[in-house]
Amino acid sequence: MSIKQATALTLRQLRNEVGLSQEQLARKSGIDRTYISGVERSVRNITLDSLEGLIDALGVSSEEFINRLHIELIKQGHSCSV
């Protein structure tokens, strides 16, 4: 699994955990719903600014997101060190 795919999966999992639709997350973050959809399907590359906006809108810290992303990468056998 690539970092792009793991990021997409982590964002989708967090969005579902907090009970937001893509439309609700779009309104809350100010980021277009179709962009969010593309990111969650790994067909769009996310910028760090957009990622930060989504993380804030989801109500998690950047540290929590990075930890969750790291765990997802480990589960998928991706070698990386933090």
Features:
82 residues; 5 helices; mainly alpha
Describe the 3D structure.
Helices cover 68% and strands 0% of the residues. The longest helix is centred in the N-terminal third of the chain and has 15 residues, at 3-17. The chain is globular and about 35 Å long. It is built from five helices and no strands. The mean pLDDT is 93. It has helices at residues 3-17, 22-29, 33-40, 48-58, 62-75. With 82 residues, the chain is mostly helical. The relative contact order is 0.20.
**Helix and strand composition category:** mainly alpha
- Please state the average pLDDT score: 93
User: Which descriptor suits the 3D outline?
Assistant: globular
What is the C-alpha radius of gyration, as a whole number of Å? 12 Å
Give the helices and strands, then pairings.
Elements lengths: L2 H15 L4 H8 L3 H8 L7 H11 L3 H14 L7
Helix pairs in contact: 1-5, 2-3, 2-4
What's this entry about, in short?
This protein is an all-alpha fold.
